[in-house]
Amino acid sequence: MLPVVPLDPTAPQRRRAYDPRHPLLLPFVPRANDIAAGRTTPRDLLEQAIARIDADEPAIRAFVCHDLAAARHASDAATARWRAGQPLSPVDGMPIVVKDMIATAGLPTQMNSPIFEGWDARVDAACVFALREAGAVVLGKTVTTEFACGNSGPTRNPYDTARTPGGSSSGSSAAVGAGMAALGFGTQTHGSTIRPAGYCGAYALKPTHGALHVGGLAPLAATLDHLGLIGASLEDVWAAGMAISRIVGGTPPHPGMAGPQTAPSPRRPATLVRLDTLGWAETPPASRDAFENAVARLGAAGVRILDADSDAEVAALEVELSGIGDFANDLLAWEARWPLAAYRAQGEDMVGARIHDLLARAARVDRAAYARALADRQRLRDRVAGFAGRANGFVMLCSSGPAIADHGFTGSRNYALPWTLVGAPAFALPLLVADDLPLGLQVAGFAERDAEACAIAGWVRDTLLTDNA
């Protein structure tokens, strides 16, 4: 079996205390007024990102490759458009990075696998094409786990290099969290956008399933795969998502994410459902305390909080969530038989242990078991949809604690998995702290109501950051 490549022991080490009021992030869309007024330019912001790459990449190892000359050329063109008062979109000039599972013209797409070493897809995936059309500036490709489900790469957490950045969107989350880019493409099949964003102190959007086009993403499990966006602000992930939706739409037949071009105004929800999920039992006391405190502050700000202790329907949902692991893994294993079996056919020593394990599970899942898993997921979706008349959204953690001190294992997916299965929008907000490290808060909504979930996430962000001031 292909082994996990060990971390370079000579790479620089660092640990920085996390403060959600003063993160390392490099927002772009929130600087639009400054750019339009000439107080800064896309080239200025790109140079800030490159300076951070020069300083921090030796320790963090977020990139597979980059082309800074091409990025500077594209950034200069965006700067000229802004000076002329004719930007292509709110993301014109935004420095972005692309997870190395996503086809990118002119840069190799290698998927952390020797099978694809040096492979050039020659054309852009739908999402990369769309953001280039909208003026975004591609800095380079970022590290992923093997085929987004297997061996880890060399990337380290930007706040503690002894810890994982999460997976599989490890490089994009670390790059954005460290201020090396304003936006990174990720994917999520179980927990690969929401969890690493929370670990690395970044914002993220996992949209309604199909609302952002997945053409050109290396497939894993068709009914689970989401395109994810990891960004330096809520405004960045929303504007990027809407640019993609406007230019290429969603994955057919989905017409694409609906809403305004820039992030909707923050809106206080009347009622939120607090969920512990199957992750609560593995969540350490400091992280539990941070979450409890955040929920209490939302309640003090006028939001009615429903939880399992106060509401029978929430209690029933929590019971259902506690049993999702088996059927979620059956769905993944069945749907990922191809391409994983095709990769293994290149040689059993060309793929890692996790891929062998998934294929072994797939061999035990028959048509009846897959049908039961689909029915179990639909029952969960129906139960969540039943809250639409009683609540405005859901709040839970992004992960069971801050990033773990591990390299081969990227952490539990138990908090991110539920809304992957539900197929509805979820946002990661880097608002909490545990053990001086980032702890993401997840705000989730109802399917096809991404804009409403974004407005609620904006209010939660503003409320908790103001409360922390």
UniProtKB/TrEMBL annotation:
Membrane-traversing stretches: none
Location of the Amidase domain: 44-452
InterPro entries: Amidase, Amidase_dom, AS_sf
Entry coiled-coil feature ranges: none
Protein name per Swiss-Prot or TrEMBL: Amidase
